[in-house]
Design goal:
homodimer, alpha/beta, nicotinate phosphoribosyltransferase, TIM Barrel, 2 domains, 7-stranded antiparallel beta sheet, about 40% helix
Chain lengths: ~425, ~425
């Protein structure tokens, strides 16, 4: 399954490795963060469970192999390669940081060590699955930080890049600190709290707004959130207030939230509904949330959609997946790339997180602090169940809490120190001089 | 299937419509473009086949229904609603513009007419599937325009927001004018030309670059594209030139493409390989392609990844899905939303595309030019097979060719005129005054 969900060049290289007698060569590939996304001080890593599922089920169907065989690129490839694909399974090792770990530019996220073809094919899927979910988890962490304790709900599936991205994005947003999601499938699949009551169409389907509000209360009881901006927000607030409980509260979805929330609060309070809450949604992001919080707008919770589900201000993360070692019949060769604007560093690595800095070292080095990369799959088998989503969410919260306050702020600041160990630096210059680069 | 892949409020509203005796009320919902994405003069509509599949298979499994039933929001909902979900199918109508049609702000993309619950639930999926693919198809059209006849390949699955988004994005990119994709699954599923040869890891897996190039040629023959920037681009070009054919050519993946392409062209030509081509990839978008084309850089084709697969400069499209009509036992009520910054217009509509403008009219009006919205599903059944991807791609090319040249350029310019018919304007003001808004 999923064997074809990769760039064709991974498969032409697979044929090339096969035809060049490299099937048994063991390669180590490293997925690392080259640059943080724009306007980000950190990345909250997410998507490890999805790539574990992928690696454990990776295979090719007979129809998929027949498709490849008919492509012009495979015209000269021997039949033995297609037999090889037929029996293909991932038999290698995966080392990764735990889901929810905060990382920085220049750090490895995961390492794959496997026969070279098995390590090569996953590149495309791994990059896409992990960078996307990491972008969303990181954006969610920023929105949650800005909300300063008020719950932030993820509402963005309709703006996500496919409905499936919305569902995985909802998971990542929860991991990054959101209190829940509007995506029902994400609730069902991942056990995330789900929230939602009614849209404008509900109100529009009744001849008058009061009627719509009354009918909603009858169905949803204390879960009721009246959406009050279909026609006129303050009029809507008065109608909701006149009806009274049961209700959770009201939702503002357009207009100037600072002014409207104060006016609506006054309307609710005057009618005696001091316990009714106000939620705001519509064109929110971490900057607007921060401004509303600091102006003291009486908003109890925020719904963030578009900007969160697309990581709108930073939809791209510069991550790479590069070969760092090759083991040819027991002889190890270190590999790297030294072209002008895109460099990669040789050798399998480990990150040691100390109190005030990270040290990127060679794998097997002794270091101070927490060793972040841990074995997940060995010899094609998951060595123990992955931590659950709640545990990953807790790790993200803890990782963020351990950062210096300036790094948790929305503005880009002095980066967390990431240095290379002396042994790693020695390997880099050694490899460089061996390559004559 | 897919019943839960929606925002929870669609399902709480469904319960509300059911409990309020509205199951038989027929609603018309309209999906329309509120604003074009940033920096765009048009939108190439894509994703209709995906939403047809969705509507034709939409249902709820017993487990999904049990999950809903246990949510606090459904605590007061009667058992009859869950029986209703068990038998739920889409039995309504879908009208849409043909895949590949170019549209503008203020225009409806599709209309759903169905019992209100059946029309409400699809909102989330429809918006996500169509806006994403439309963003990618539109970006691809811009890249293709900028390349002025040189083929543009889509290379971006690794940067897409999930691997599945990469696959659907590859389809949309092809529809928008790309010559093919690197995504093998997209080739298999949709019959799109696929392309790819080797990455840096291929070169790095051999002790020297020449050896890597030689082995690649042996496997790929005339499909060979040597990636020449692993260590030093010009040295790489010399090594490829020294080997000679068979090869398609070489690929530049970093550095200053304008300078490097001229130097590499000279190296290839001096060695007598005047037929060998040069492809460029890496950090490209429509603006860089335009600059390279206008400077006369000898680049034969472009590979665009990150920016295309994410619509990086415009990852969001302001589309809405709003109730426009409600039919209660044969009495038609028109619905609209008139809050300050988010307005929707009442009534089912049609677009007439005339020589120099579009007229948005009421459905059933007589108009001049091509009527763009056509029936696709009637009474829950597909009325005829959808046009294939090649036909949609042809329609996109034709739609773009019919635009005034200024609108096809990269800069934002005077919009294509979209006006509302007199009848539609009358309905808008009538509805507004009925609502007292």
């Amino acid at each position: 399954m999923n064997g074809l969900l990769t760039d064709l060049y991974e498969l032409t290289m697979a044929a090339g490795y096969f035809e060049s007698g490299k099937v048994a060569e063991k390669a180590t590939f490293e997925f690392s963060i080259r640059h943080l996304p724009d306007r980000r001080n950190y990345a909250v890593i997410a998507g490890i469970p999805q790539i574990v599922d992928y690696l454990l089920t990776l295979s090719f169907t007979a129809e998929e192999i027949a498709y490849l065989r008919a492509l012009p690129q495979f015209a000269q490839v021997s039949p033995a390669f297609f037999d090889y694909l037929h029996d293909f399974r991932f038999t290698g090792d995966l080392f990764a940081v735990p889901e929810g770990t905060v990382l920085f530019a220049g750090e490895p996220v995961l390492t794959i060590r496997a026969p070279v073809i098995e390590a090569q094919i996953p590149e495309t899927y791994l990059l896409s699955a992990v960078t996307f979910q990491t972008l969303i988890a990181s954006k969610a962490a920023r929105c949650t930080t800005a909300a300063a304790g008020r719950p932030v709900m993820e509402f963005g599936t309709r703006r996500a890049h496919t409905p499936e991205a919305g569902t995985l994005g909802a998971r990542a947003a929860y991991l990054g600190g959101c209190a829940g999601t509007s995506n029902t499938l994400a609730g069902y699949r991942y056990g995330i709290p789900v929230m939602g009551t009614a849209a404008h169409s509900w109100v529009m389907s009744f001849p008058c707004e009061t009627d719509a509000f009354r009918k909603l209360q009858r169905v949803l009881g204390p879960s009721t959130v009246h959406l009050i901006d279909t026609y006129d927000t303050l009029e809507g607030a008065r109608r909701a207030a006149a009806l009274g409980g049961p209700m959770w509260g009201v939702r503002l979805d357009s207009g100037d939230f600072d002014t409207l929330s104060r006016q609506v609060r006054a309307i609710l309070d005057e009618a005696g509904h001091t316990g009714a809450k106000i939620m705001a949604s519509g064109n929110l992001d971490e900057y607007r949330i921060r401004d509303l919080v600091s102006s003291g707008a009486p908003i109890d919770s925020f719904g963030v959609g578009t900007q969160l589900a697309t990581s709108g201000d930073a939809p791209i993360m510069g991550a790479i997946y590069k070969m760092v070692e090759l083991d040819i019949s027991g002889i190890k060769r270190f590999t790297a790339k030294y072209s002008e604007d895109k460099t990669s560093f040789p050798g399998a690595k480990q990150i040691f997180r100390d109190v005030a800095r990270d040290v990127v070292a060679r794998a097997g080095e002794c270091g101070k602090g927490e060793a972040l990369l841990r074995p997940i799959i060995l010899g094609g088998r998951l060595i123990e169940p992955l931590p659950g989503l709640e545990q990953a969410r807790e790790r993200a919260a803890q990782s963020l809490a351990n950062l210096p306050p300036a790094l948790r702020q929305l503005e880009v600041t002095e980066p967390w120190p990431v240095i290379q160990s002396r042994e790693l630096r020695a390997l880099i210059s050694q490899t460089r001089s061996n390559l004559g680069a």
